[in-house]
Amino acid sequence: MTDRPVGLTRRDLLRLGLVAAPASLAACGWTGGPLLEPKLRAFSRINDWLGEKVLLSPARLAKQHPLSARTDPANFPAYSIAFNRTRKFPAPDVPASWTLQVGGLVRKPLRLTREVIETLPRVTYTVKHYCVEGWTAIATWAGVPLSAIAAMVEPTADARYLRFDSFDAGYYNGWDLKSAMHPQTILAYGFNDRRLMMSHGAPLRLYSPIKLGYKLTKYLTGMTFTRERPGGYWEDQGYPWFGGV
Amino acid sequence: MTSTTVKRHHGLVRLAHWLNAVFLLGMIASGLQIYVAYSHFGLRDRPLALPNPLDGAAIPEWARLGGWLAGGLNWHFALAWPFVITGLVYVGFLALSGQWRSLLFRPRDLGPAVQMQLYYLRLRQDHPPQGKHNALQKSAYTFIVGLGAIAALSGFAIYRPVQLGWLTTLLGGYELARYWHFVTVWLFVAFTLLHVALVFLVDPSSMRAIITGWYRGRFPSHD
What we know:
The complex is a heterodimer of chains A (245) and B (223).
Chain A: H1 10-26, H2 33-55, H3 81-86, E1 100-104, E2 110-112, H4 114-119, E3 123-130, E4 136-145, H5 146-153, E5 161-166, E6 172-176, H6 177-180, E7 186-191, E8 194-195, E9 205-207, E10 220-226
Parallel strand pairs in A: 1-10
Antiparallel strand pairs in A: 1-2, 3-4, 4-7, 5-6, 5-10, 7-8, 7-9
Chain B: E1 6-7, H1 11-35, E2 42-43, E3 46-47, H2 69-97, H3 110-120, H4 135-159, H5 165-170, H6 174-202, H7 205-212, E4 214-215
Antiparallel strand pairs in B: 1-4, 2-3
Helix pairs in contact in B: 1-2, 2-4, 4-6
């Protein structure tokens, strides 16, 4: 091959540098800084909107799996904020007097004991659990459809969101009503044919195969219908709010 | 060397090329940040029986964007839209302008592709005649657009494995779709390294063309 002049002018190199410099700066574990990070979070609201209004169909059910597909419960990660801090799973102050408080923008606020909750209509399914980290696991969950509880308390017309509270070191979550009323969204008290264990959020936890794991509040204490969008333990720190799958 | 100067790339193509380079870099770096949160493939107790040299690997910080999982997710889901839109505008422009003809690899390019390969392997002395792009370039540019489509589709499949369940099933389920999505990263990286190396080794004038639009080099033909 003969020598050829390199077909790049100094101006071309300069222009290339203008493109490459910010790009290479970006790739350094950078959150976006005080300037860009809020913008990224604001953009995440657009994805929340798309997730609820465009991508979520209230009728589409998550696929159910055979019992033989279940993940060995020992390999199903259990985690809680309190456990991460103290190595002890949280428990209600007085386990015997635990109740679920259902209120907010409703006509008939309720306080439900576990005995009453277990007499309500029951849904049991074996579904895949999607963690935001990327892992999946399959388990059977049993509980009462959230829509059945909503029918009992009669939310008012201005209720748009649900806030779930827990006794796990202040863990909480906000949900859109459309996801909450999905037929597979339940308040679960059963895990793999047994009573829900402490490690998985006993006595009662939120479960739904249409949301990522961090949306599924464990160790429930209350459920509140609201007009304003509630945040969430991880959501307030930057995780996507909608968290659908 | 010829002194003919020809208009080679439309402004829209150049814009799409460079925007895409930045968006893709951001997608890969934020994707690697997401990957380190769980650097395995398969269900929790059933790993996929597919090769992954990076199983359990600690991706160096300089290659990651976002700082932590939430940051990586926010970058990834924000850049995904401009990345997809740029790709659609680019492909739409090629389709409407007819410029796809000089880029799409078709069966008739098979013979010329073999000749180009022989030339690169020094088994043929003279450079085979070519139009705007040679047959090997066409195969590369067709491949990369297809790869972009697979990256986007597998991305949507793992973004909404229930709501877009048909797409996830088409790709073999969530765990496999996540694997394909990761494989596209390394194909993009391999393509880019080869792409840039060939620019400087074979036709440095093409660098000017993709920046200014004007080409003044060895292959001025414009089919």
